[in-house]
Every structure is written in structure tokens, then in C-alpha cells.
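Figure 3 (text version): C-alpha cells given as input.
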């Protein structure tokens, strides 16, 4: 009886030793081998994950190494250890190396190598990871000749499939183009700087990796010193060794907001001009008929939006449920503009909408996903005008539990267009002439329904981050007037919760019908990110439970504890940083932040392509008439989800860059002023400082912190003086002076005014131990 366990153990040990010997031999030969039957050493696992991003799930790894039974348990522990040590990260079910490019990435083709092959770099890359990796674009000449593969060129932005490179002497990755997103015509943006004597000028780049160019006097056109211009790049000037450029158009003064948003649009490659075929198709569209529609024009649906909204894609209504089986219950109706009726698959409108993925919002403009004829006219739920819509009727119990829901394709007529402030003021007892008559029949039932939905939300306990969104108000000349945080009203929360419930209903209906769709998913925080957050919280006396089964409400206790304390802003920021990125996917893993198992975007098809796909899926699977999803679309959902997830990040980056540049312009006139800030990031190079009142971030180089030698402690997110023991830590409140603003880069540089605090004994002891044990951490001679 005792021989079997010993035999199993001996067999497992032999397999492990065999794997280790083979790994050693492979390492000597600079090779990676797959050993069947035993969990390979850590370096082999890491190499496999690096080389096989498409096969980096636990199941695929076990299959590749032939692991069964107890060996699979060992593999699970080994992978968890790699994740805990920060050597791999987990995204949904797949593992990857930290900083590795995802399997599908948006690339900008920037140059050629010595052999003439195209080289691209990721369009998005965190600065803290250093230089963005180069990617060799592989294009088969045979495939190009036969038209089998998209062809990219210099300046193009492409969506590409990424592969680890086997050529150790070249770029770390190779790529195959899936789709050309933006075919550029060789034009670049830059700032024209005039040379003395009227001899032309120079083009100053707006991107860090850009190059200065010469503009001869004959090629200046109407440009003046300081103008943002679009230029055509010519040959290299033999006299100066710089490329020549010719001004094609003048966008405007670089100090204006128009120019700043155009920088972001250009830098991120956002399509912003509709082709004639798309505009023609939009203009030719006719109002929808009553075919396949229910007539709901009698139902007093209302739109509640920002006061300056130009399009209205959602309307709401609520009433008590008359059913005796649901005492105290309510019926909530959400109607959404029927974009799928007008934008059909494979049409010019559809192709352009997918190319954009979503609308992009700047302080001075909107780059819409659809032309105004569709978004602001035919699909806008205007007050008192017949409009087609897709509606969901949801029944809730008095406890906020959904009892049932049904979808309907309707014709509606909005009873009123209200702003959030109008609706809230009416509920608060200060109705205006428009909202007053709607108070009893429409608004009070809506607020009563919201109270019931809020009961359900409180029970669900989604992640309750408090991250105030700052709004920029511009002057007539396009410069910043002021920055403020709009008040968060119950009217906002009411609409938000009703939209969430409509999104849940859409996902549930399609899943029940076994209809393929695109979910909105949000994975749990990785163990590595949890550990970073846990270590930070420990420095301010907070704790986060260990374990891989955290739920969204696990963070709410921490956020509540930080409320109304000096740590409130930074704790919310750090909890946000610990979260995974929400994305679109045809595979459902639930939404961690909302604490929902089924969730899809349904409520904004005017501005998000994902919602349009969900509308088409509902129309098709429920037999609601024309405009349903096609088999070709169903087969392409994975690619579509990857594209629109990338485009969403592109839009966020453009919006963020514009805000940063605007704030830098705004503060450029305040050099030398002092501000109250907070340490929002710590690196060995220095401190990142946020100014909460502006929503701005800047940097303090470590070399300017003082005469002491500062030691970086990653675990405690601190920089501590070697002699004094004084230092700065993530979350510290500090006083700073603005010493430099670079508007084009959206960059600010500060000087520290606050003296560092005495660091806790544990941190100082950690520094001493680190200096004794780690080579290269002793202070340089003369600075000890």
C-alpha cells in the first residue's frame, strides 16, 4: 500500500530532474525545448509564455508540456509564483510578460531598416516602460501581388498581429498587418518658427521622436511664427542635412485650443474627415417608416442630458407596476436611437464607423463616429419629433430585483428635452417653466424608480471610486478660462443606473438566445497589481486582504476608510491603477468593477460601434425587421472587438493629451507660482506631482530634490535621503513651485518647496540592508 505514493513521488522527481537536465542542455545551446510530463523550470515557462502569446493560458501550457494530474497542480502553483514575483501578468485567462505587446496591437509605421523592411512602433506605450519596442512588419511579396494581405506604408497606422521575433539581432517583435487603419499621405504637423532675415524657417516637431525640418522661404505659404502647420516632407537638404518641408495648410496659432486638439487628432491618427461617399449615403437616408415597429408615441419618454448636448440617443420613462403580483414594484423603460436601421453592415457608413470605433470628445469639438445627418438629426431623439428606437421594458420588484424584461422596436416621440440641472432642480423644489408641468407625471415616478434601482445597486456593491471629472471652460479665443469639477447630481446617477440595467438586459437576452455578441468585460486585478496596492496601503496604515478571489466590494471598505482624509485622492487613484482595463470581447468573463456577470454596451449606438453591433444582434435574433447582424459580422466579432478596444484607448489618449496640453498652456503664464500638490508617482528618476485643482501632473527630477543622495524604494514607493533619512512618499502632500511649462508636450516641471518627512524606521532599515546586499547602490563618492 505504501509503494504507490513513493513510486509516484520518485517518478515525479525523475521527471523534474530530467526536465532540469534538458533545460540546462537547452540553455547551453541557446535553445528552448518542451519536456513532456514534468513541470519545466521557471526560465522555460517564461520563455514559452514569451514565445507563444497565443498559447499562454494554463490549459495550453499544460497541453504543450504534456502535464496531467498532479503535474497540473504543480503548474498552477508555478504560474502563480511567477505572477506573484511580477515575472508574468495575467489578462483574463492568458499570461504574458510585463510590458509585452498584446497579440493584436495598433502600430505606427515610422521607418525602414537597412534592408528596406518597414518598422513600426506601438501607437500607445507607457512612458514608465522606456522606449517603445520596434516591430518588423512582415509583408509577403506573393501575398501583396495577389492582393491577399493589406499593404502598409510609411506613415500608416495599422492593426497588426504580433509575434515574438526569432532574430535576436533585430527587433523584438514581428507583425502581420490585419488592417490598415489610416492611410496617411505623407503630411506632418509641426510648429513653424521663423528665421531672421526672411530666409524661411524651421518646422519644430510636436512629437518627442519627431525631427526638425527646414522650410525654405518659397515654401512658407501663409504661415507665421508660432503657427501650427501641416507640411509635406521633401528631400533632405544637402546644405543643412535636414529634411525639407513645404507648408500645405495653416491650422492656426499653437496657443489656440483648436490647434491643440488637432495635434492630438493627428498624433493619434484619428480619422476626422468623412469621405464624400459616407456623406452622400448619410444625406440620402430617409426617415424610418412604421414597418416592423410598435407605436409608442403616446408614452411620455424624456431625454435628460448635459445642457450643451447636440445629440440625444437615450430616453427614459418609469411608472408603478399595476400588477398585484409585484406590490411596490416599478416598470422602467429605456429607449435608444435605432441606429441599426440607418447604418447597415458593409455600407460606406458602417465601414467608416468601424474605422473610427467611437466618437472622440475635446473641449472645443467632437470628432463623431457618424455624420451629423445621422447622429444629430435622424437618430437624435428630438423633442416632439417622431423617431425610431429600440426599447427595453424592465420590471423591478420593490427590492430592486429585476423580474422580467422585453425588447421592442418602436416609433417614439420625446415628451421633453431636459438637462441634468433642470431635472434635478425640479425634484429639489425649484422647477422652471418647462420642468414644472413634468414634475408629477414624469419626474417623480423616475426618481421613485431610481430609489428602487439604487437598493439593488447597494446590494450588488460595485466598485465605488470617487474620481471627480474636471471640466475645462474655454474663452472665445480658444484658451482656457477655468477648470472646475461639475457637481455630481442624482439626475446623473439615475440615468447611469437605468443605462446599466438596459445593458444587462441586452446581454442576458442575447446570451439566452445563444446569439453571438460583443460583451463589455472587466477582468479582476492581477495579483501583481494587488500586491503593489497592498504595499502602498501598508505605508499609510491601511490593509488589503490577500487572496486571488477579491471582489469589487473588497476595495470599497478601503475607499470608505480614506474618505475625508488627506489620503482620499491618492487612495482612489491607486485603487484605480490596480484595476484591469475594461475591453470588448465576444467571450464573457463578467464585469469586475460593476460586479455583474452579464454586461454589454447597448445604450449609445450613435457614438460607440460596440453598441451598434449589439443592436444588430437584438434585431436579428428577435426578428425585429431590417438591419440585423450578418453571418460575416458574427464570424468577425473577435477582430471587431479587438479593433474597437484599441480605438477606445486611442480616443482616451487623444482626450488626455489635449487636456494636458491645454493645462500646460494655461499654467505657462504662471511660472514661479507656488501650488499645493500631492506626490502621485515615485520613480528612481524623481517625483510625479499632481495639482488636484487643475487635474494636471508634473515632474520633479531627483537631482533637484536637495544635496542629499536619495535612494529609491520601490516596495514603499519612496525616495529617502541617505544622510538625513528625510524623504518623500507616494500620497504625500507637498508645496511646489512651477519652474517650466512645455505646452506642446503637455509637460510641467516643478521644484520642491516642502522639506521631506522623516521616513519610518522600516523604510530606513530597508535602505541600509539594500546598500549592504545590492551592488551598485552605495552613494557615489563625494555624496555619502
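Below: residues designed for each position.
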Amino acid at each position: 500500500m505504501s509503494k504507490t505514493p513513493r513510486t509516484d513521488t520518485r517518478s515525479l522527481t525523475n521527471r523534474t530532474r530530467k526536465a532540469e537536465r534538458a533545460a540546462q542542455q537547452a540553455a547551453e545551446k541557446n535553445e528552448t525545448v518542451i519536456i513532456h510530463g514534468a513541470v519545466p523550470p521557471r526560465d522555460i515557462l517564461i520563455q514559452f509564455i514569451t514565445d507563444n502569446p497565443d498559447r499562454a493560458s494554463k490549459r495550453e501550457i499544460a497541453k504543450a508540456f504534456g502535464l496531467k494530474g498532479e503535474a497540473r497542480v504543480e503548474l498552477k502553483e508555478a504560474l502563480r509564483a511567477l505572477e506573484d514575483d511580477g515575472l508574468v501578468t495575467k489578462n483574463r485567462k492568458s499570461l504574458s510578460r510585463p510590458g509585452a505587446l498584446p497579440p493584436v496591437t495598433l502600430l505606427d509605421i515610422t521607418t525602414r531598416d537597412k534592408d528596406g523592411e518597414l518598422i513600426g512602433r506601438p501607437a500607445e506605450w507607457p512612458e514608465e516602460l522606456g522606449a517603445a519596442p520596434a516591430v518588423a512588419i512582415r509583408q509577403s511579396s506573393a501575398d501583396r501581388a495577389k492582393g491577399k494581405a493589406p499593404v502598409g506604408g510609411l506613415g500608416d497606422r495599422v492593426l497588426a498581429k504580433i509575434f515574438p521575433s526569432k532574430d535576436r539581432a533585430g527587433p523584438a517583435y514581428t507583425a502581420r498587418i490585419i488592417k490598415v487603419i489610416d492611410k496617411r499621405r505623407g503630411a506632418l504637423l509641426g510648429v513653424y518658427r521663423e528665421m531672421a532675415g526672411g530666409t524661411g524657417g524651421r518646422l519644430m516637431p510636436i512629437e518627442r521622436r519627431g525631427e526638425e525640418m527646414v522650410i525654405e522661404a518659397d515654401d512658407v505659404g501663409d504661415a507665421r511664427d508660432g503657427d501650427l502647420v501641416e507640411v509635406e516632407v521633401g528631400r533632405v537638404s544637402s546644405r543643412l542635412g535636414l529634411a525639407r518641408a513645404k507648408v500645405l495648410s495653416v491650422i492656426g496659432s499653437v496657443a489656440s485650443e483648436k490647434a491643440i486638439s488637432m495635434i492630438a487628432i493627428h498624433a493619434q491618427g484619428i480619422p476626422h474627415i468623412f469621405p464624400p461617399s459616407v456623406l452622400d449615403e448619410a444625406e440620402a437616408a430617409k426617415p424610418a417608416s412604421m414597418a416592423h415597429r410598435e407605436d409608442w408615441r403616446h408614452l411620455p419618454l424624456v431625454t435628460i442630458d448635459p445642457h450643451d448636448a447636440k445629440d440625444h440617443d437615450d430616453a427614459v420613462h418609469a411608472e408603478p407596476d399595476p400588477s398585484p403580483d409585484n406590490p411596490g414594484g416599478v416598470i422602467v423603460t429605456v429607449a435608444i436611437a435605432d441606429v441599426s436601421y440607418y447604418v447597415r453592415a458593409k455600407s460606406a457608413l458602417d465601414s467608416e464607423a468601424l474605422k473610427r470605433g467611437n466618437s472622440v470628445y475635446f473641449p472645443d469639438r467632437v470628432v463623431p463616429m457618424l455624420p451629423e445627418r445621422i447622429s444629430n438629426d435622424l437618430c437624435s431623439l428630438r423633442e416632439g419629433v417622431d423617431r425610431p428606437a429600440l426599447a427595453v421594458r424592465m420590471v423591478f420588484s420593490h427590492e430592486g430585483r429585476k423580474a422580467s424584461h422585453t425588447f421592442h422596436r418602436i416609433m417614439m416621440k420625446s415628451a421633453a428635452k431636459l438637462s441634468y440641472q433642470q431635472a434635478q432642480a425640479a425634484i429639489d423644489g425649484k422647477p422652471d417653466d418647462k420642468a414644472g408641468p413634468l414634475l408629477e407625471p414624469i419626474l417623480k415616478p423616475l426618481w421613485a424608480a431610481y430609489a428602487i434601482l439604487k437598493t439593488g445597486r447597494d446590494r450588488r456593491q460595485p466598485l465605488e471610486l470617487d474620481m471627480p471629472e474636471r471640466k475645462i471652460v474655454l474663452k472665445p479665443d480658444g484658451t482656457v478660462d477655468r477648470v472646475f469639477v461639475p457637481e455630481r447630481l442624482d439626475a446623473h446617477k439615475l440615468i447611469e443606473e437605468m443605462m446599466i440595467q438596459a445593458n444587462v438586459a441586452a446581454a442576458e437576452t442575447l446570451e439566452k438566445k445563444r446569439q453571438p455578441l460583443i460583451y463589455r468585460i472587466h477582468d479582476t486585478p492581477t495579483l501583481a497589481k494587488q500586491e503593489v496596492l497592498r504595499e502602498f496601503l501598508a505605508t499609510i496604515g491601511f490593509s488589503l486582504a490577500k487572496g486571488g478571489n477579491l471582489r469589487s466590494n473588497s476595495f470599497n471598505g478601503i475607499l470608505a476608510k480614506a474618505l475625508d482624509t488627506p489620503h482620499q485622492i491618492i487612495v482612489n487613484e491607486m485603487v484605480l491603477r490596480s484595476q484591469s482595463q475594461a475591453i470588448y470581447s465576444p467571450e464573457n468573463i463578467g464585469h469586475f468593477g460593476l460586479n455583474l456577470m452579464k454586461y454589454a454596451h447597448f445604450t449609445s449606438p450613435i457614438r460607440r460601434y460596440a453598441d451598434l453591433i449589439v443592436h444588430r444582434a437584438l434585431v436579428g435574433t428577435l426578428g425585429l425587421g431590417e438591419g440585423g447582424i450578418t453571418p460575416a459580422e458574427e464570424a468577425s466579432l473577435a477582430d471587431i472587438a479587438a479593433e474597437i478596444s484599441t480605438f477606445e484607448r486611442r480616443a482616451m489618449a487623444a482626450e488626455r493629451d489635449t487636456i494636458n496640453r491645454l493645462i500646460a498652456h494655461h499654467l505657462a503664464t504662471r511660472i514661479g507660482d507656488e501650488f499645493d500638490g500631492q506626490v502621485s508617482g515615485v520613480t528612481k528618476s524623481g517625483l510625479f506631482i499632481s495639482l488636484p485643482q487643475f487635474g494636471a501632473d508634473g515632474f520633479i527630477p531627483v537631482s533637484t530634490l536637495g544635496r542629499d543622495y536619495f535612494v529609491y524604494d520601490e516596495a514603499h514607493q519612496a525616495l529617502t535621503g541617505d544622510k538625513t533619512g528625510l524623504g518623500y512618499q507616494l500620497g504625500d502632500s507637498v508645496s511646489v513651485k512651477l519652474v517650466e511649462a512645455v505646452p506642446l508636450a503637455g509637460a510641467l516641471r516643478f521644484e520642491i518647496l516642502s522639506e521631506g518627512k522623516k521616513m519610518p524606521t522600516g523604510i530606513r532599515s530597508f535602505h541600509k540592508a539594500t546598500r549592504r546586499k545590492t551592488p551598485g547602490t552605495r552613494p557615489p563618492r563625494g555624496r555619502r
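The radius of gyration is 29 Å.
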